[in-house]
Every structure is written in structure tokens, then in C-alpha cells.
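Annotated sample (chain length 274).
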Amino acid sequence: MICIILVLCLLGAYGLISLHAKNISNILKENINLIVELSPEHSEVELQNVLQKLKQHQKIISSSVRYISPDEAIQIMNEELQGDVLIQPTENPLAEIITFNVKYDYVSTAELQFLKSELEEMTHIVRVQYYESVYEYIGANVRRLSRVLLYIGLFLSIFAFGFIYSTIQLSMQTEKFKIRTMELVGAEYFQIRKPFISQSLRVALISSGFAIVILSVLLVVIALEFTHFTKVINYGFVFLVYLILVLFAIGITQWATYIVVQRYLGADKSSFYK
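Output written by the structure step:
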């Protein structure tokens, strides 16, 4: 049973990673800053007007809109570079900027270019800058990860079928003489199969239950260690993976038990000693 639990844990972990890969990609994309450079000729009211328009834009995450003054920019540079900045506050050449993040639904080359052109037409906005290569890098890596996960999934599926079948076949070696005895006393085939099928069902439910508990504990540990985990996790996906694990465990153990028992039913006596 321990072997079955370990295999189910591997399959469950694979399923959780595969289903959440897109969520991770979306969160990464939403955390890349776009920068709006403002013209120096504007009043406080005009600045607030620009900020308000950005916050109300359907493609922009309103909570991410942030105004950074030239003095604040110098302070940020000092903190990041540990004070090793040659620019003095009295001769600050930095412009006023606004940073914001775009909703993942609109993160594409065409959408970002359209948003850039749209915002640059607004009054007091000089230019909009973003690192297109970063978005392309994330997209390329997500596609590469999807292919790798597909190969891993195929390998794990084949491994799980073979391993669980071998485990059940090995456990049934001690039961083959019981099958022969039941045959000799005139039991019907379905009567012979029934206790073994019932036993395999119990094994499947117990194994999948333990696997679900182990995976749940791992998810809790990860959630405690990483604060952004709650943004990534989709509890609908978690429930789906758990349901598939239970159904898979029941299906593979029932199928393997049926095949192994069927092999001994009606077999000649010599085959029981092989």
C-alpha cells in the first residue's frame, strides 16, 4: 500500500503543478511594471487627473498605479544601490513617472503596443516604456514548461499503471491457492472475484486518502513559507486533482485485480506453481 501511496503522491504533485503553471505565469506577467514618463509642465490637479484615468482603465490593475516623484526616484536608487549614486538631489535629472501593472488578459505584444499608443496620446504623458523581451521570455518559458510537463505526465502515467499492476500482482501471489480452492468447491467466477475486488477498493480508498492528506500538508507548508502562494493556488484545481486521484486509484486497482484474478480462473494446476 505504501508504494501505491507514493505513486499517487507523485501523480497528485504533477497534476497540481501542471494545472497551476498558467496561474504562475499570469502572476509573473502582472508583476512587471510599465512606466509612464510625465511632462514637467503640469499642475497637481492635472497629475491627479492622469492618475485617475489610469486607475479607471480596464486593462490596468488600479491598485498597482503609483506616482514616483524625482526625489523619491533618487531615494529608491540610493536604497537599491546602497547609496552609490552620483546624482545629487539639487541636480536631479530624473523625470516624474507613474508605474502600473497590466491585467494578464491583456499581456500580449499587440495589446501592450495598443495600450502604449493609447496612453501616449493623453495630455502630459511623454512616453510609455516596458520591457517587451521580459514578457516574451516568460511566454517562451511557459511553453517550454508545458512541453516538459506533458512528457513527465506521460512517463508518470505509464509508470503508475505498470508499478501498481506489478504491486497488486505480487500481493495476489499468496491468494492464488485460495482462488483454486474456491473453484474446486464450485464457486462461480463472480463470487471468487468479489472479495478481491472489494479488497482492492478498500486499498484504493485508503491509499488515495493518505495521498490527499500528504499533499494537503505540503500545500499548507508551502502556503506558510510563501506569502504569494494564496494568489497562485486555485482550490477548484486542488479539488479536481484530489477527485482524479481517487478515481484513478479505484480504476487502476480494480482493473489490475480483475486481470490478475482472471488469469488464475480456469488455469491448469501447473500454472499455480510457476
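Annotation: The mean pLDDT is 81.
Annotation: The beta strands are 34-38, 66-68, 97-100, 125-129.
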